[in-house]
Write a structure and sequence with these properties.
The chain is an alpha/beta fold and 444 residues long. Helices cover 57% and strands 8% of the residues. The chain has 2 domains: 208 residues, no CATH class; 144 residues, no CATH class. Helix 1 packs across helix 11, helix 11 packs antiparallel against helix 14 and helix 14 packs antiparallel against helix 15. The two termini are 33 Å apart.
């Protein structure tokens, strides 16, 4: 793909510059605009009536949410579920073992009281098992799982009942057996020692740690804290033009604005880097085949990086500030080596890199395309006088305004840009282009 005249040294420089430009441009790539409106409690809404762009929950103020979330985080802990079927099964086992013992020992004096009062022994055994199973019994596998679980508060779930417990309140099988041996001597039974070995055989783990329930409960608590429970449907009018922003409207606008957040995941940055790398690589290869590299490489890279840096900085002021940068003038301001073909390639590069990240990409691309078409129609060269250049600049501004009107009606720009002030931005951007053209000979 590379011409034979490109030396190895030049190739290394081109690759290094391409990677360097890609890294810098990725960081300078305009972010999707945050909530593009300015509003304050008690102040009038200075934009047109705003409709909900999608369904969303109305949230509580961030300060209140922050305090409540800190409280939930401090109180939240692991959740354990009691399997009620275990208690039922083991109680049936207790009944069967006692009945079998009474049958075997019906002629043995040692088991005389058990045979005579079998129901009492069963009833007291059920009571002992209920008391232990109600506290929760853990098996060895569960003990290994919970060894390093955080939280000062644990939660025990039995049916629809949720209890907050301290970590030491759950029993192991050994601790449950010790409770039996310590409690039975104080029972009303005449021969409690007959019940002890049977109780020890019927004890089994009935409590299990549930990570899914732990996480689901935390999400539920977080949702209850952040959301007021009010749902705004898509298309609902949030605020009318010139309406005072009261507390209810402010909460809706604030909830909507908090949905406009920029993802900062590695996947997002990796995708941005790959997109920029492909754009720069194609751009430099194009210039290389045109014979403009490596001499034109630093200048072309500077134009691309500088243009995106200006747009990046402007996006923090307002979404319309990007219109102050007339990209259509780039072919005129390009270096001599790239002016014939590379100028339009440079315009394409910067326009694509900004289009893929702006939140009004369709409108941005259309307005900048109108500018470059207008330059080709009305600004064929820079040798005319200032009057002809002024008329050409105004013609380009008018053509861009028509495109702005078309993308406005087709809803290809955000509602915050649906204002006549945008025409002033377009006119100011073209004025900057006119100044650049007028003073270009001095730079050359």
């Amino acid at each position: 793909m590379l011409p034979a005249r490109v030396s190895k040294r030049n190739l290394i420089a081109i690759v290094a510059l391409t990677l360097g430009c890609t890294l810098i441009a990725t960081l300078l790539l305009p972010r999707p605009n945050p909530f593009p409106y300015r509003f304050a409690l008690g102040q009038p809404w200075n934009y047109r009536s705003l409709k909900a762009p999608y369904d969303f929950d109305v949230l509580f103020p961030e300060e209140k949410v922050r305090i409540d979330l800190a409280k939930v985080k401090a109180e939240h802990g692991p959740y354990f579920k009691i399997n009620d079927d275990v208690a039922k099964k083991q109680k049936r086992l207790l009944s069967d073992l006692l009945s079998e013992q009474a049958r075997i020992g019906r002629n043995d004096v040692q088991y005389e009281d058990l045979v005579r009062n079998l129901g009492m022994y069963k009833s007291y055994g059920y009571h002992m098992l209920d008391d232990v199973f109600d506290r929760g019994v853990l098996g060895q596998d569960e003990l290994d799982k919970i060894r390093n679980l955080p939280g000062r508060n644990w939660y025990l779930v039995s049916g629809n009942n949720i209890r907050r417990i301290v970590p030491d309140s759950l029993l192991t099988i050994k601790q449950a057996q010790n409770i039996f041996s310590d409690s039975l001597p104080f029972s009303p039974l005449r021969q409690p020692e007959l019940l002890l070995p049977i109780l020890e055989k019927t004890i089994a783990p009935n409590t299990f740690y549930s990570d899914s329930l732990t996480q689901a409960t935390l999400r539920q608590k977080t949702t209850e804290i952040t959301s007021t429970g009010e749902l705004v449907k898509k298309g609902d009018i949030l605020v009318h033009r010139n309406e005072l922003v009261n507390e209810g409207i402010y909460r809706k606008l604030d909830s909507l604005s908090r949905r406009y957040s920029t993802d900062s995941s590695l996947e997002l940055w990796g995708g941005r880097f790959l997109l920029v790398l492909l754009c720069f690589a194609l751009f430099f290869i194009y210039l290389l085949h045109r014979g403009a590299l490596p001499r034109a490489l630093p200048g072309a890279a500077l134009w691309a990086i500088g243009s995106m840096a200006i747009i990046y900085a402007g996006m923090y002021i307002g979404p319309a500030v990007a219109l102050l940068l007339p990209l259509w003038i780039l072919p005129r301001l390009s270096l001599n080596e790239t002016r014939a073909h590379g100028g339009y390639a440079l315009w394409t590069l910067v326009t694509l890199l900004t289009t893929i990240s702006l939140d009004w990409a369709g409108g941005w691309l259309a307005i900048q395309a109108a500018g470059v078409v207008g330059m080709w129609l009305f600004f064929p060269n820079t040798n005319h006088g200032w009057k002809a250049q002024t008329v050409a600049m105004l013609s380009i501004a008018g053509l861009q305004s028509l495109f702005w009107l078309s993308v406005l009606w087709s809803e290809k720009i955000p509602p915050s840009l649906c204002t006549p002030d945008i025409l002033l931005f377009l006119l100011a951007g073209n004025l900057i282009a006119w100044l650049c053209v007028r003073f270009l000979p001095y730079f050359r």
